[in-house]
Amino acid sequence: MKTYEVEELFAEEKSIKKQGFLKVRNTEIKLPFTCIAGKEGGKTILITAGVHGAEYVGIETSKNLAKIIDLNKVAGKIIIIHTVNCSGFRERLAAITEEDRQNLNRIFPGNESGNTSEKLAHFILNQLSKKVDFYIDMHGADLHGTIKPLLFYPIAVEREVAEISRKAAEASGFEYLVASHAKNGSYSSAALEGTPGILTELGGMGIWSKEEVDCYTEKILNILDHLKVYRIDNKSNAKITFFDPVNEIIAKEEGYWYPSFKTGDKVGKEEKIGEIRDVFDNLLGEYFSPTDGIILYQTVALAIKEEGFLAAISSIQSR
Hints:
Elements: E1 3-4, E2 16-23, E3 30-37, E4 40-49, H1 56-68, E5 75-81, H2 86-91, H3 116-128, E6 134-139, E7 145-147, E8 150-154, H4 159-170, E9 176-180, H5 186-192, E10 197-201, H6 210-226, E11 241-243, E12 247-250, E13 255-259, E14 266-267, E15 272-277, E16 283-288, E17 293-299, E18 303-304, E19 309-314
């Protein structure tokens, strides 16, 4: 399969579908991609999957999108990067890259002169997401977590960027829409640079199913339809719940994690959400919710490191 330079993805072409590997400058990385340019002009949309290499539902959905999107129905261009963290995918790593053992979605905007992971983040931002009209970054709950299907949209950005992103979120078919003031992730860094976008979450625990992929595909197609890049006949509607930015609960001890609730459960302010014990079952720490809300995602692994992520709780917005 041919290897491409990034400029070739943005060439003025119509009615063409390219697939191959994209060179990441100053690294040995080659990203698998599909680029679909329609016969009519329109927006350019970037879709990425596998920023975390073990979030398999999003990765498989990216493949499915490339397979089912009809070139003749595209107005504009759709660029799909099927796996951003190729080394993490290959080595079956949770969250981090194999090269530098870093969480790629915590080091944006990256560094052109940094290590391999930082160069990759810099490339995604500066050579891809800053050059498109809208950015969709597909995620899930990784190897050791569960999550309610949800979508993050940026709020700590210029008003127009936030508005375009929120309207796309509302059209997605996701029921849970979560405001985010993140600044160091893939889509949030792009939004700070002026590219509207969203981060979607579906799946987890290192597994995937056709049903999940079909559901995820439907939601991404809803967004493409809203952006008038790819029209679909059957749009899915959802009863939307808006959430405030999440409160992430971080472990203060290393040990064995015992959550008290399931993902999606309601919790009250100061209600106990779990505890950490040592190997001899001695209590090391208890953890409590800082707000009334819902557990949107959490770690379900027994093992937990000090400063490891435990749970994310968010309160429902009053609108």
